[in-house]
């Protein structure tokens, strides 16, 4: 009897890769109260996703980012969002993850290991679940195509929403900020902590009821292998960059305008001064915004503090709801009380 065991090196390489993946899949996760049990991650075929998007019809395109083109698609009776990577997997993905020796050792099996690496990243992403994070539902990966399937957020990004100049009460803005802060806090509370590092108003998506969720949580691994620059390089080191980005997000959320990139907190203060507000909730809002943008970075609050502050502001708004204030350009003509 002949037992064919293939190339021993290839077999060992695959076993090591599988061991590595199983370790990631068994990794620890956070157990904060809003953690959602991960649904089963679905592996879609390319054919299924072609059908879902009408063969990736332009009409289904809703945007694009550094990962790739973003489509809506229909799977069963459910609308989903499909991100299709710009370019296929490159062997250098693996080279950046493993040592040079290991890559040499794997030799001709780079392709399967790249795919295994991609699948391990996707599995990891799918385990990061929270009600304020956009859920990854599934993926498709072969040697030519890599696609990610996410839940669909019908109102698009906060940036889209602000651009469309749709009405948003101050209370609603606070509730969006609070949702987004909780999403980031969940990432920071994971063991080991996860930094988003690309947090902007485009990364906060709104559902039909304007509940907000942070998109692309845990996607950094996939993107870092592609030499991407940080969104806010002045945000400082890993632990503070999300907080800095959150401060910019708060400014953008309240003004509707993209704030300039500031060199210092004095510049931020100069930017805010002519825009002072009368209403009591605006002051704590601007205070926490400025604290997030603090220099040096070590003076910035942690996200749990940000969540607590925003919760207090939100509660004040609920209490004084009947005194409603319209937001918009006229807001900034109000002088200091
Ligand atoms: N799950 C989703 N539901 C609804 N719309 C989405 C979803 N994901 C992305 N979009 C839309 O697609 C656009 C592009 O998203 P994507 O995350 O690829 O890039 P980005 O955030 O705009 O830029 P980058 O990733 O380069 O920083 C978003 O601005 C948003 O309008």
Summarize the structure.
Helices cover 42% and strands 12% of the residues.
Textual characterization of the structure:
With 337 residues, this protein is an alpha+beta fold. 42% of the residues lie in helices and 12% in strands. It contains twelve helices and eight strands. The strands form two sheets. The chain has a six-stranded mixed β-sheet, with helices on both faces. It has a two-stranded antiparallel sheet with strand order 7-8. β3 and β4 form a beta hairpin. α9 runs antiparallel to α11. The termini are far apart. Adenosine-5'-triphosphate binds next to β2 and β4. The site of adenosine-5'-triphosphate has 22 residues, from β2 and β4.
Which helices and strands, and how do they pair?
Elements lengths: L7 H18 L16 E2 L2 H7 L8 E4 L3 E8 L2 E8 L5 H7 L2 H7 L3 H18 L8 E6 L4 E6 L6 H6 L6 H20 L14 E3 L5 E3 L5 H5 L13 H18 L9 H8 L9 H11 L10 H17 L18
Parallel strand pairs: 1-5
Antiparallel strand pairs: 2-3, 3-4, 4-6, 5-6, 7-8
Helix pairs in contact: 1-5, 7-9, 7-12, 9-11, 11-12
The structure holds adenosine-5'-triphosphate.
The site of adenosine-5'-triphosphate (ATP) has 22 residues, from strand 2 and strand 4.
Provide the low-confidence segments as ranges.
Answer: 1-6, 21-33, 105-110, 326-337
Main sheet summary: 6 strands, mixed
Instruction: Report the helical percentage.
Output: 40-55%
N-to-C SSE series? HEHEEEHHHEEHHEEHHHHH
Number of strands: 8
The largest sheet has its strands arranged as 1-5-6-4-3-2
Using the alpha-carbon principal axes, give the shape: globular
Distance between the termini: 92 Å
Which structural class matches the secondary elements?
Answer: alpha+beta
Using the CA coordinates, give the radius of gyration: 22 Å
Number of helices: 12
Q: Kindly estimate the percentage of residues that lie in beta strands according to DSSP.
A: 5-15%
Q: Give the overall average pLDDT.
A: 77
Cofactors and ligands present? adenosine-5'-triphosphate
